[in-house]
Amino acid sequence: MIRSIGKRIELLRVIAHPIRMRILHELLRSHQCVNDIVDFLEISQSNVSQHLALLRQAGAVDFLSDGRTKWYYVIDPIIPDIIEVLRRDYYEDLPAPSLPQRKKQEKSTAALRG
User: Fold this and answer.
1) How are the residues of the chain apportioned to helix, strand and coil, as percentages rounded to the nearest 5?
2) What is the distance between the alpha carbons of residues 36 and 45, in angstroms, rounded to a whole number?
3) Tens-digit pLDDT profile for residues 55-73
């Protein structure tokens, strides 16, 4: 996949957002659907969809349809290297996602039981 310098700069601009960096980091682990990402980041479905649309327009991700579910994955071969550099140097500075609601409920139930 050969890209012009302008396309690479646009890709870097799109990646340079804390939420999109976290999305890409998760997509490098495995294919994810929007609801998986919503659960992980605890942001709205529409917000996740907007970020995925920008990543898709930049050529960073694509999706496979399985019925009504779209499974997103990384398609640009340079993304793993970019995310690794950013993760290594800056990932600690990114806001950490909180636990998905299910996990919070399980933890609070376990705490009540003692």
Assistant:
1) 65, 10, 25
2) 10
3) 999 999 999 999 999 999 9
Amino acid at 21: M
> How far is residue 29 from each of residues 19, 23, 24, 105, 114, measured CA to CA in Å?
16, 10, 9, 25, 34
Query: Given this model, what pLDDT does residue 104 score?
Result: 42
CATH number at residue 74: 1.10.10.10
Question: CA torsion 89→95→101→103, rounded to 10°?
Answer: 40
Domain span at 92: 5-113
Instruction: Express each pLDDT in 5-57 by its tens digit.
Output: 888 899 999 999 989 999 999 999 999 999 999 999 999 999 999 999 999 99
**Beta carbons of 10 and 59 less than 8 angstroms apart:** no
Record the pTM.
Answer: 0.75
- CA–CA distance, 90 with 15 (Å, rounded to integer): 13
Domain count for the chain: 1
Sheet (strand 69-74) strand order: 32-33, 69-74, 61-66
